[in-house]
Amino acid sequence: MKKTTNETRVITKVIAASSLGTMIEWYDFYIFGMLAKTISTEFFPEGNATAALLSTLAIFAAGFIVRPFGALVFGRLGDILGRKSTFLLTLVLMGGSTFLIGLVPGYKTIGIAAPLLVLLLRLIQGLALGGEYGGAATYVAEHAPLGRRGFFTSWIQTTATLGLFLALGVIMLVKYSMDDAAFNAEWGGWRYPFWFSILLVGVSIYIRMKMQESPLFSKLKSEGKTATNPLKESFSHKANFKMVLLALFGAVMGQGVIWYTGQFYAQSFLETKVLLNFEQSRTIMLWAILFATPFFIFWGWLSDKIGRKWIMLAGMVIAILTYRPIFGYFLKNADVTKWEQTIAHEAPETVVKSAQANGDETITYRQEIKLASGGGYVKERTDVVNVATGAVATGQTMYKEKVLPDNLYWKYVGLVFLLIFYVTMVYGPIAAFLVELFPVRIRYTSMSLPYHIGNGVFGGLVPFIGVLLQTNFTADPLVGLWYPIGVAALCFIIGAFYLNNGIDENVND
């Protein structure tokens, strides 16, 4: 009994220390994506908002693309030097680069050097995250008692979503404390979440310094059986390399696109296509994340009972079948002409005139409207006046910065919850699934690479490819969903036919 109590205390400390550090790394990684629209105006020249946003999303995606290289570099170190020291180093690199992004002057101050510096720091972030996750998941799994790896590693799985939750929460607190002009200024409030990172990292480093090395790795090291060349052992041995490929194409790439569709593409879609205002698009995400997060633990626990494979594949196939109906609902019900039009307050119309480069004049008419139902929107129209002839080209009336009526708001929360619920199904069991595929001596390297290719490349490109498809195929507002649907469908087919439901946990320990 005493031994069991002591083991529980140890694993609780391991989970708490590992999860806190990993959550902070995800926070650091994701605040960039959360602030992509603002960042695009600060680090790129004015004149083409769409091009600036695409460029910012490309830098965001670059951090994902280099994650596999981080997996190779830090995975090798983790299998040679140990889990603890390696993911301590990744934490320092991530926190330092995040803090420095907050110090880079804007394009107006240092020109092209601004986006180049941000890109460099973003690449360092991606490398660091490439080494963090595999170390944390391996570390927790190697402390976990047999038969409970799914449950214990699922706590690590919550950290990505909790890091996103923390990023959203900090951004919202800063945004609410100042007006838009102060938040979006070159040295405005949008930088505060980056600076706040250094405090979080300091706390996590202090906690991680007190951690002990993984018992399985320590035993391996004491016996002189650690890998001398983890990269060669992981990828030149046919049987192991086959497992790497199956992990990637049969599980992780599908999990990656489901993750980023449910939590990043959804938020981007609500803001850029549905045209919800900044605060409401993010509070919807916050509520949905809060309600869905416990299911990471549930699915991890259940995977110890019935196996990992079919839980993950079920999440994929449900997402494939329901993505377009859910996102279609978002668009259809955000049509303000279908809302109850009992106006509670109608602000005076503002008129802003500005000159174009060719000498013509633009006149923007803008009016804020609040409805009795609790919703509201901004009605905006921009006309172009030909100065030479006096002819007026009347622009299309746009309904922007929408605030959903109360009855619709919670329906949107419920649907975003479903999107993240799918994420919990595919992501909750996957750490235990990956750990059990590979032997201890090369586990850090072998599991990190497929994870970060699946998430960093296939998943991380979801927002960028989604916006790119929307830009080029404007007839279908849901065209961006075909990328995650296609990748998840391919992964489901490969996983269903070629993956085992689980491996005896003693095989690779």
From TrEMBL:
The keyword Transmembrane helix applies. It is a multi-pass membrane protein. InterPro entries: MFS_dom (IPR020846), MFS_sugar_transport-like (IPR005828), MFS_trans_sf (IPR036259), Sugar_transporter_CS (IPR005829). The chain crosses the membrane at residues 12-32, 52-74, 86-104, 110-130, 151-172, 192-209, 244-264, 284-303, 310-331, 412-437, 449-469, 481-499. Residues 14-503 form the Major facilitator superfamily (MFS) profile domain. Keywords: Cell membrane, Membrane, Transmembrane, Transmembrane helix, Transport. It is found in: Cell membrane. PANTHER family: MAJOR FACILITATOR SUPERFAMILY TRANSPORTER, SHIKIMATE TRANSPORTER. This is Sialic acid transporter NanT. It comes from Mycovorax composti. The gene is nanT_2.
